[in-house]
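Deliverable D2.4 — example input (structure tokens):
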């Protein structure tokens, strides 16, 4: 068996045609030709050099290894935009069942030359994303959509989130691709050009809305000042949009945000929220609950739980603790490399359902404060009482000391 040692990391692209097997031979031949021409035209418009692509045909689609290291922003943005436009023009005069519609997946990973193309984790990863159930569901539920785009977590974090391409991260919805039979599980991001991310998220089974509830443990003197000087300031600093329908009424305060903002909310926004709290009111202490929506109930329950309050009562140096639901933890936090998200700083609370807690400013949450036990009240009558009492030649330290003494034959007291 030959040894293939030419390992490298590259941009990987996979494309599959919708309902290809349901067409007859002539239709399949036509779609193959049209797809080839559209891909070449879209690549040229996007400034991509197809000579740098190593293509492996599959009949109903293809796999390509793109050797050009600078191609990623153009492939993620302009290439998909141009391909979608050309598909739209082609499909406009066609019945639904005869349209050319695509699933497109992208990943940056390792590959090695193999007898039938390329091997290693990269080609496997991009093809698993291509076959995600969520991508198929989107095409089934959105008959007017020409394509669905799926990008891996490395591409989303390194290209989309860094704003290196024309596509905004707000256009994507996060999904979890779980294929137990293939021993594969990974986060990915999905998008349909021209369709709101919330709509796509609803079709893929994703929560779509991230609900953040802020529960003050100490009184908020002025709600309007709190919103303007704390919440709004933190949102501006973290580039998170404060919802237009936000209610500034009586606490707890609840924000409904896009799931695509999750990494930023649980990272830099919490950092700026902590700073804004400390600048606004040194005595103000808040529990932040985070759960998926659309209802605020789950987030409010997390924020108002006794366990979180116990942690906040037992720490110094931080005016807030954060409690997230289990699905927020595994969908957004676990394994995240986003700025200030700090996956290793969360501790499971052992609740049912499970939730996770973090104390900003601590690498690991400290132990919660023990339950408070009030000292017994000293009686207003009795022989002797107080924190320290002296009688019969001895000193007794206790909240209450009861005893008697004799004064050389005088009546005792």
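Example output (designed residues):
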């Amino acid at each position: 068996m030959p040894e293939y040692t030419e390992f490298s990391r590259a941009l990987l692209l996979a494309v599959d045609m919708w309902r290809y097997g349901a067409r007859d031979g002539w239709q399949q031949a036509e779609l193959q030709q049209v797809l080839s021409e559209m891909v070449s035209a879209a690549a040229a418009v996007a400034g991509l050099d197809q000579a740098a692509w190593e293509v492996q045909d599959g009949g109903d689609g293809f796999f390509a290894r793109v050797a050009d290291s600078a191609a990623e922003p153009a492939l993620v943005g302009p290439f998909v935009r141009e391909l979608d436009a050309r598909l739209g023009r082609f499909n406009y005069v066609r019945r639904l069942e005869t349209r050319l519609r695509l699933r497109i997946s992208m990943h940056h990973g390792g590959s090695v030359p193999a007898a039938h193309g390329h091997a290693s984790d990269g080609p496997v990863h991009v093809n698993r994303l291509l076959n995600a159930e969520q991508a198929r569901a989107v095409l089934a539920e959105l008959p007017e959509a020409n394509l669905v785009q799926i990008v891996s977590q490395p591409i989303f974090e390194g290209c989309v989130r860094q704003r290196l391409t024309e596509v905004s991260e707000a256009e994507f919805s996060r999904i979890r691709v779980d294929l137990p039979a293939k021993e594969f599980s990974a986060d990915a991001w999905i998008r349909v050009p021209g369709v709101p991310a919330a709509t796509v998220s609803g079709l893929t089974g994703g929560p779509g809305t991230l609900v953040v509830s802020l529960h003050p443990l100490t009184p908020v003197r002025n709600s309007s000042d709190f919103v303007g000087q704390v919440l709004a300031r933190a949102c501006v600093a973290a580039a998170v949009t404060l919802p237009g329908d936000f209610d500034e009424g009586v606490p707890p305060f609840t924000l409904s945000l896009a799931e695509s903002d999750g990494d930023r909310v649980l990272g830099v926004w919490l950092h700026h929220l902590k700073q804004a709290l400390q600048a606004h009111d040194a005595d103000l202490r808040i529990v932040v609950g985070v759960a998926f929506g659309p209802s605020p109930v789950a987030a409010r329950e997390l924020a108002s739980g006794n366990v979180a309050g116990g942690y906040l009562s037992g720490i110094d140096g931080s005016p807030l603790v954060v409690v997230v639901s289990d699905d927020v933890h595994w969908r957004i936090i676990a394994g995240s490399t986003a700025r200030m998200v700090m996956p290793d700083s969360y501790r499971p609370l052992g609740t049912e359902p499970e939730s996770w807690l973090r104390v900003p400013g601590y690498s690991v949450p400290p132990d919660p404060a023990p339950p408070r036990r009030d000292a017994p009240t000293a009686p207003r009558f009795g022989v002797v009482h107080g924190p320290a009492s002296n009688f019969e030649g001895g000193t007794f330290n206790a909240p209450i000391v009861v005893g008697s003494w004799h004064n050389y034959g005088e009546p005792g007291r």
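The first strand starts at residue 8 and ends at 17.
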